[in-house]
Amino acid sequence: MSPVFLRLKEVGSPTIGLGCMNFSHGYGSPVPESQALRALDAAFDMGYRHFDTATLYGATANETLLGKALRNKRDQVLLASKCGMYIDPDLGKKVIDGRPETIRLQCEASLLRLRTDHLDIYYLHRLDRQVPIEESVGALGRLVEEGKIRGVGLSEVSATTLRRAQAEHAIAAVQSEYSLWTRNPEIALIQACRELGTALVAFSPLGRGFLTGTIRDAASLAEGDMRRGMPRFNEENYPRNLSLLEDFLAIANELGVTPGQLALAWLKAQGDDVIPIPGSRDIEHMRENLAADSLHLDLETVTRLNAMMTPDQVAGGRYSEAQQADIDSEEFAS
């Protein structure tokens, strides 16, 4: 495992981290700051020590929020952020820019917002197809040399891109969407990560809420919720996907755990180098997710789960066509 994460393990911290995007971005209206700060304080108190944010989230508002929440706790947490994808204030839209000069400027701005002198992991949020990955990673490597970041990360990249990046600088972690109903890292990325000693940080480990069993009607999602534009959640595909959930819910009931805990336990069963970062706005949901850190599944249960929600069974792609154009990671043949 990457030394960045080994430090958490050595002090007995949970291996499950907290994805903080939901407070400011992606799932309806942002949470009011006072409420978000209370939730983040509670998350720390209950044991979370790995907090993940990005320049993109809330057009920098999420980093500012984390800076306030962790200002007196910085030396006790693993803090990760991301660069190379942001909301352009003049254009009012998302921009992908992996140029070295942009990476440096974004890092320095992120450090100010996060009220820290370094980041434990700094990810390139998306591959900029106009910039060789070696140039982007080279810039991140120079930030390591200067002590502004401790580890270089990549997000939503293929095994091929990871190998090219590793030749330029050691990659501490790759973030990829990974859950029981999104198995894309199993195509090639997990193997590459293990060969290179790179941790796989699994975002959306609860299937963007699907695996909790609480979203019975996708039409109930709030206006502005990013899932409304995702094919798996549309009116044609979502009922079909719900039918796949019943056996999964039955196993959770058999084990006396929540569906979300079962989803996280399945991910943890994939290896110690797979690190889930579920996101939640709700303190009780955070507590529920963290409790899965001590849940261990036997081989028979893992085998049963492996046969569920396989790529050939799930209806719809994980991203829209426009979103998919920004993704470098491997996809299953349709």
Detailed description of the structure:
The chain is of the alpha/beta class and 334 residues long. It has one domain: TIM Barrel. The chain has 12 helices and 10 strands. The chain has an 8-stranded parallel beta sheet with strand order 1-2-3-6-7-8-9-10. It has a two-stranded antiparallel ribbon with strand order 4-5. Helix 6 links the parallel strand 7 and strand 8 (171-177). Helix 2 packs across helix 3 (61-69), helix 4 (100-113) packs across helix 5 and helix 5 (133-145) crosses helix 6 (159-168). The model has no long low-confidence stretch (mean pLDDT 95).
**Global morphology:** globular
Work out the oligomeric state of the chains in this entry: single chain
Q: Structural class of the helix and strand makeup? A: alpha/beta
Q: What is the CATH top level name?
A: Alpha Beta
Largest beta sheet, briefly? 8 strands, parallel
Rg, Cα atoms, Å: 19 Å
Poorly predicted tracts of residues: none
Q: What topology, given as strand order, has the largest sheet?
A: 1-2-3-6-7-8-9-10
Count of discrete domains: 1
In round numbers, the mean pLDDT is 95
CATH architecture: Alpha-Beta Barrel
Question: What layout of secondary structure does this protein have?
Answer:
Blueprint: H1 3-10, E1 18-19, H2 33-46, E2 50-52, H3 61-69, E3 78-83, E4 85-88, E5 93-96, H4 100-113, E6 121-124, H5 133-145, E7 152-155, H6 159-168, E8 171-177, H7 189-196, E9 199-203, H8 238-255, H9 259-268, E10 274-276, H10 283-291, H11 299-306, H12 321-324
Parallel strand pairs: 1-2, 2-3, 3-6, 6-7, 7-8, 8-9, 9-10
Antiparallel strand pairs: 4-5
Helix pairs in contact: 2-3, 2-10, 4-5, 5-6, 6-7
InterPro entries: AKR (IPR020471), Aldo-Keto_reductase (IPR050791), NAD(P)_OxRdtase_dom_sf (IPR036812), NADP_OxRdtase_dom (IPR023210)
Organism: Modicisalibacter luteus
Domain NADP-dependent oxidoreductase: 16-307
